[in-house]
Amino acid sequence: MLEYVIWDWNGTLMDDSEASLKAMNNVLDRYGLERLSHQKYMEIFTFPVVDYYKLAGFDLSVLSFEELSVAYVEEYKKLSTGCLLSAGARGALEGLRARGIEQILLSASETGELIKQSAALGVNTYFSHIIGADNIHAYGKLALASEFIKKQGYKGENGIFIGDTVHDYETALAAGCGCILYFSGHQSMDRLKKCGVPVMKNFEELEQILFRGGLC
After folding, report:
1. Whether the predicted pLDDT of 137 surpasses 80
2. In whole angstroms, what is the distance from residue 140 CA to residue 48 CA?
3. Domain 4-16+86-212 sits in which CATH superfamily?
4. Residue ranges of the domains in the chain?
5. 105: nearest Cα among 69, 143, 141, 56
6. What is the overall mean pLDDT for the chain?
7. Quick check: 136 pLDDT over 50?
8. Using CA atoms, how far apart are residues 142 and 198, in angstroms rounded to an integer?
């Protein structure tokens, strides 16, 4: 029985793939490196993001990952102020609330920024917990999810993790939860499908997958 849903934020509930790509290209410009096409971005974006930076062309034997992270976050914050919720996201949150299902927001983003963004878009009150990282380096969510579930005493089999990357699938596995992925533009459909779990193209598909397709 489905008791709780853990939501990813960036790319899943908040539509920020375009802002993320623009921010990275602005940083690449600063260092005189080749810009990424959207297709290239979807093929190389990964967690931990230090690996993504390497694939994007940064030589981390010369450049500091910490320095690059600061540069990226500066660009991203300017661009992300214009980001909106993904189409249908609010309806999905409302639908789960109406069914009495607990909802948790969990992200590799820094906690303060996560709280600020979710409040600005008017969805923070849907979540019983908002869990983020204590730094800006986006190392990943594996430990965050597993530790949260253990601390709360939740059963993994009673939860679903909804995200938009292969890392979200890996996070669900580590936490013992089910998983649904959403094609947001951060990673290619081919990469997501290889995880072997349902992949939504829009949030209108969520109820069908959760409650009519036998997943729950």
Report:
1. no
2. 6
3. HAD superfamily/HAD-like (3.40.50.1000)
4. 4-16+86-212, 17-80
5. 141
6. 94
7. no
8. 20
